[in-house]
Amino acid sequence: MSQIALKGVTKSFGGVSVIHGVDLDIETGELVVFVGPSGCGKSTLLRLISGLDQPSAGAIEIDGRDVTRVSAADRGLAMVFQSYALYPHMTVRQNLSFGLENTRMAKAEVTGRVAEAARMLNIEPLLDRRPTQLSGGQRQRVAIGRAIVRNPTAFLLDEPLSNLDAELRVSMRAELAALHARLGTTMIYVTHDQIEAMTLASRIVVLRAGRVEQVARPLDLFNRPANLFVAGFIGAPSMNLFPTRAEGGTAALPGGRRVPMAGVPEGSEVTIGLRPQHLRLAQGNEPGFDLRIALIEALGTETVVHGELAGTSGDTPRRVFAILPGQPGVALGDILRLGFDEAYLHRFGPDGQRLVGPGRP
Amino acid sequence: MTSLGHWAGVLVTAPLVLLARAVDPLLRAWQRWTGIGGMAAFFLLPNLLIFGVFVLIPIVLNLAYSMTGGTEILLAQRPYVGGEQYARLLECQDYSRPLTCREDQFWTAARNTGLFVLFQVSLMVAVSLVTALILNREIKGRGFFRAVFFFPVLLSPVVVGLIWRWILQREGLLNLLVVNLGLEPQVWLNDRVTAFAAAVGVSTWAHMGFYTLILLAGLQAIPRDLYEAAEMDGTPPARVFRRITLPLLGPNLAVVLVLALIRGVQIFDEAYVLTGGGPGTSTLFLTQYIYEVGFASLLRNPGLAAAASMLMAGVLVVLTLVQLRLSRSSAGGQR
Amino acid sequence: MSAVTSFLTRRRGQGRRWHWTDVVTWAWLAAGVVLMFGPALWLVASSFKGPAQLAEFPPTLLPYVQQTAQVEGHDEPLPLYTVTREDGTEVVLAEIRRIGTNSQMVDPANPEERINVNIADREPVREVGFATENYVAPLVANNFLRFLWNSVFVTAVATAITLLTNSMAAFALSKYDFRGRNAVMLLIVATLMVPLSVILVPLYAVVNATGLLDSLWGVILPTVATPTGVFLLRQYMLTIPDELLEAARMDHASEWQIYWRIVLPLTAPALAVLAIFSVVWRWNDFLWPLIVLSRRELYTLQVGLNTYAGELNVQWHYILAMTVVTMIPVVLIFVFLQRFITAGIAGAGIK
């Protein structure tokens, strides 16, 4: 039985629908990441689970109990806010104990829990400071601590790392992963950063415009994106997408190479996707397509090439990304011939959905 | 000393904290029963109740009172007279000469108030603007001088009135100066003209600090780089003042002007203590008229007072609408 | 002309030479200091003068007290005068009584002999001193101690109620989304335009009907629902992030606790400003207490002062002293808290 279940959850604000019938099951101990572009409804969905907002329709269950009309305080969840929302007029200790005191917990137990959380998060020396006297990373820990002391059924984290600088973000990410491994508590994590999603998640929920596009484990998401949106959203630089037409069981790619295309009606509009990492310099007479180099980003271990398809015009994608290993001797304006393995192709039907067929597992 | 203050603070707040803690379970129950919307009502209720009883109901009742007669206070015991009170106030042969009006005191008070507003507001705006411009310069001890001009604002009108009554009396400080200059001492508050001038001057003295602060805030909100840019462009100072300072200060000037007008129309306290409306009726203003007709005179007439206050309210509403229009158009013109 | 306008537009730069506009500036400021503080200082100085000295013209700058001497054979100390004798010499004598233009005097060294002196020939012996009985007498004998207590009561209670009810209303209006919220807000803002002087008669009727006439509560209650306070606090509370409230809700806090333990402490700066304003407003209120209160023992200081100053035989020495007493709290606020007030005015334009 799943621990948190959303059943046809819908939310509209003043007649504008922002969540359209989301169904989702989250198992105990999972770290589920909601990811999507801004405005996709991922934070709204989290707030619906938290109980801070009420769904317009549908039901939310926690441990098999319908909590749709239960107040936020009584759902047994804890939340870490994007701004941390630490009470500025209370010390760290008071911030941690405030929620426990509200449940009329015995003083000794409050003290014990605060001390334990402080030790776990290495914030013991900070307990008597105010939030304004803390650095961003320290505030982040306190915010997490405030959630931990509650001993919640699940943690809800709303873009918790977005206010940190890049370096701190990487280390906090690792700490969060370690914390999850240690506590084993269910976590729901909202982010717009796909690296966070890929590195932290047990499963990723990709959202767009209030709808779930795909729910999958991180690598499955990368290897088998369910539709054009997920294909374009996951992975950086994003997947090269070539619109083309199915003719006689094959479809043509720029440069003329035809690849098998089964399971779609003859003549339908299809899209073929190819990740930049899966392009390579063509060997000998290998078929491929010609790319005029418009920009080179040499990163040392790899080289990102932004190119334009030679001899194309109209509605075909002019811009193509390729990631070449190492430091190949290429220069601006060069025309490269790029090849690929058909095994790495992603095929999408006229409706934008993935076509079952040959491809990576 | 600080610990003393601390303990005093604890002593004051401790009962409140205990009280707040004691009511929490009750309010939690209420919240459970009514939901968060019910809590909003709970928070709003005390203020709205007081507000409704002592502000809204009187506003509505004022019209009713203005259409009744007699000396009774209870509305139910007052006979309905329709527009008679208004007719009485407005009955006049020649509006420019109050004595030809049936309620000559009302028209005297109206004329006095009009003149008062004219002189006081002009003086107020001029003096506050100059003071604000001076305080906006880079002078040493600006905070101190700003405070100096602000000091009288805090004084009560009664204190203001008495201070100046004391200075302006026959054996007062002003006469000492006058005599030292070789002039004849005067009983300033016994002369129609000087008493009126005193009312204008004293109320300006008492309130100019407030308007100076508003103007100063406006001046300081003007970005310095605008002046620096103008200087780089070689803009002549007169043009800088006309094209940068004045337009950018416009909203604040408008606020000051209209606020001073609105307050000027209501002039009462300090003038009443200073002159009592005299000599004769030379410093009788509208609010004092309303007060005396409604409460103080032997033949009190609440209906007439209410009608007079309705007419005054009309003027104030017009002024307020002008203020809203001004602040809106100036805000729109800025961007 | 350009000098004038540069004075009007530019701030004085560093290291520029002493320009005549600087002279104007400092003259204006000096005049300001004299004009703004002078009258109050004059009041304080005058309040320590005895009735005789107050009636003198020209007035002296400092308060003087006539010297007295204990003379044998008289129970009370007698006032001392310098008497100019016919031969031009001066001698200090004590006055026993005055009869018409003659003064019956005695030499303190020789109490047996009585001397008659024309009052034109004597000058009181005085030195700087303070007629503190100006303060003591009205506080003890006339009701001023009572007035003082009434003023303190009205100010303290009205400010406490103002802070509580206004902050609760501001909390509801800034942190909850309910039907009619904008209507309530509009109503409150609209009444900002309705001054007391416009609703005197019906307000009197309402206070009469609620049985509050001639009671201090009748003075307090109509003043506490200030739209200004609600407006000021609401503007401030809008800057408190909603996430804090949500965090508290997740933390099991009730709405009352959120108000009391989260929002109120965070609104402290605005509450302080409102408290200071409220104290000044209520302390200085005059017209409304004048109307509501008719029993003398309920008068506030302002009403009491005006009543005493309005009597036929004005006792200036008492009035001036009590005016100083009335001024003291406001002066203390000015000295210690002026910054908050000016910030409040510059920020929110309230008065």
Automatic annotation (TrEMBL), chain A:
Residues 4-234 form the ABC transporter domain. Keywords: ATP-binding, Nucleotide-binding, Transport. The keyword Ribosomal protein does not apply. InterPro entries: AAA+_ATPase, ABC_transporter-like_ATP-bd, ABC_transporter-like_CS, ABC_transpr_MalK-like, ABC_transpr_MalK/UgpC-like, Mo/tungstate-bd_C_term_dom, NA-bd_OB-fold, OB_MalK-like. Pfam families: ABC_tran (PF00005), OB_MalK (PF17912). One of its GO terms (biological process) is carbohydrate transport. GO terms for cellular component: ATP-binding cassette (ABC) transporter complex, substrate-binding subunit-containing. CDD domains: ABC_MalK_N. Belongs to the ABC transporter superfamily. This is sn-glycerol-3-phosphate ABC transporter ATP-binding protein UgpC. The lineage of its organism: Bacteria, Pseudomonadati, Pseudomonadota, Alphaproteobacteria, Rhodobacterales. The gene is ugpC.
Automatic annotation (TrEMBL), chain B:
It is found in: Cell membrane. CDD domains: TM_PBP2. It is a multi-pass membrane protein. It holds the Pfam family BPD_transp_1. InterPro entries: ABC_transporter_permease (IPR051393), MetI-like (IPR000515), MetI-like_sf (IPR035906). Belongs to the binding-protein-dependent transport system permease family. PROSITE patterns: ABC_TM1. The chain crosses the membrane at residues 6-23, 35-61, 115-135, 147-167, 195-219, 240-262, 304-326. GO terms for cellular component: plasma membrane. GO terms for biological process: transmembrane transport. This is Sugar ABC transporter permease. Keywords: Cell membrane, Membrane, Transmembrane, Transmembrane helix, Transport. The keyword Transport applies. Residues 110-323 form the ABC transmembrane type-1 domain.
From TrEMBL, chain C:
It comes from the Bacteria. PANTHER family: ABC TRANSPORTER PERMEASE PROTEIN MG189-RELATED, ABC TRANSPORTER PERMEASE PROTEIN MG189-RELATED-RELATED. Gene3D superfamilies: MetI-like. InterPro entries: MetI-like, MetI-like_sf. One of its GO terms (cellular component) is plasma membrane. The chain crosses the membrane at residues 20-45, 147-171, 183-204, 216-237, 258-281, 316-337. It is found in: Cell membrane. The keyword Kinase does not apply. Keywords: Cell membrane, Membrane, Transmembrane, Transmembrane helix, Transport. It is a multi-pass membrane protein. GO terms for biological process: transmembrane transport. PROSITE patterns: ABC_TM1. The keyword rRNA processing does not apply. This is Carbohydrate ABC transporter permease. Pfam families: BPD_transp_1. SUPFAM superfamilies: MetI-like (SSF161098). Belongs to the binding-protein-dependent transport system permease family. Residues 148-337 form the ABC transmembrane type-1 domain.
